[in-house]
Design brief:
This protein is α/β, with parallel strands linked by helices. The chain has 2 domains: 46 residues; 169 residues, Flavodoxin domain (Rossmann fold, 3-Layer(aba) Sandwich), CATH 3.40.50.360. The protein has 6 helices and 7 strands, in the order ααββαββαβαββα. Strands 1, 2, 3, 4, 5, 6 and 7 form a 7-stranded parallel sheet that branches. The two termini are 34 Å apart. Bound molecules: flavin mononucleotide. Flavin mononucleotide (FMN) binds next to helix 3.
């Protein structure tokens, strides 16, 4: 049989063969899981970032940006004076550095029907008026509170709310969106964080914790898949490879 190999260096197949010959069946099975984990991590680093300047067509499903079944983080910001956008950009940069796929969009441009296709949603939104959403987030806010809003049982989310404690309705828009996504069945990655005017440190803490939580859920999914594969391949061998991911 003529099997075409991936583009390894010329000597690599021979080298792999020599190593493989010295390994037991169990060790080979472990190695396949290990390679799979490495491959997933490398592919994650290749996932695409969509900046506000190159945003997706209105109804394009986010999953198109993922390869190998890996989720992409969809970040939506609702802003009036630009603070939420700045924090969203910082979150996107950090997520990209860590190898996540990222979709970053202004709520004003986001077709909310796409919500039901999202698996990971991060909302960064301020409050204006007397506890109202910024104008750019009004349609999104209305949609998720309307009877047209979909069930979001497969969605994980978190909200960063920007506001000002001197107002009566502190961070109300973020709080409303947070509660409503939960009502629609979505699961929180980490609790909402409400930020006062000096929001940098709180935003930083939220970014760190939400990305960590998202990475953990991805690892959980990978481990489930690997365990399923190894158990199916040989039910007698139940290898734990969690530590290598
Ligand atoms: C006219 C006006 C009304 C505001 N109303 C509220 C409010 O009701 N509740 C609140 O928590 N913050 C309120 N804020 C504070 C903003 O939410 C805060 O400055 C935030 O950082 C702005 O973020 P953005 O630039 O993303 O819009 C208000 C700010 C302005 C200028």
């Amino acid at each position: 049989m003529n099997v075409s190999l991936p583009p390894f260096a010329e000597t690599a197949p021979e080298l792999f063969k020599q190593i493989a010959e010295q390994l037991s069946a169990e060790q080979l099975l472990w190695l396949s899981g290990y390679s799979y984990g490495l491959s997933v991590a490398k592919q994650a680093a290749l996932l695409q970032v969509v900046s506000p300047q190159t945003s997706l067509p209105q109804n394009a499903p986010t999953q198109e940006l993922s390869t190998n079944g890996l989720p992409t983080l969809t970040m939506l910001y609702g802003t009036h004076t630009g603070n939420s956008k700045r924090v969203a950009l910082r979150t996107a940069e950090r997520a990209q550095e860590q190898g996540f796929g990222v979709v970053l969009e202004d709520m004003r441009d986001y077709a909310p029907k796409r919500l039901k296709q999202e698996r990971y949603v991060l909302l960064i939104v301020s409050t204006h008026g007397e506890g109202e959403p910024p104008m750019a987030a009004e349609d999104f806010y209305k949609y998720i509170h309307s009877p047209r809003a979909p069930k979001l049982v497969d969605t994980r989310f978190s909200v960063l709310a920007l506001g000002d404690k001197s107002y009566l309705h502190f961070c109300k828009t973020g709080a409303d969106m947070d509660a409503q996504l939960e009502n629609l069945g979505a699961m929180r990655l980490v609790p909402r964080v409400d930020c006062d005017v000096d929001f940098d440190d709180d935003a930083e803490r939220w970014i760190t914790s939400v990305l960590k939580a998202a990475a953990n859920t991805i690892n959980e999914n990978i481990n489930k898949t690997i365990n399923k594969t190894t158990n199916t391949a040989n039910p007698a061998i139940n290898l734990s490879i969690t530590h290598i991911l």
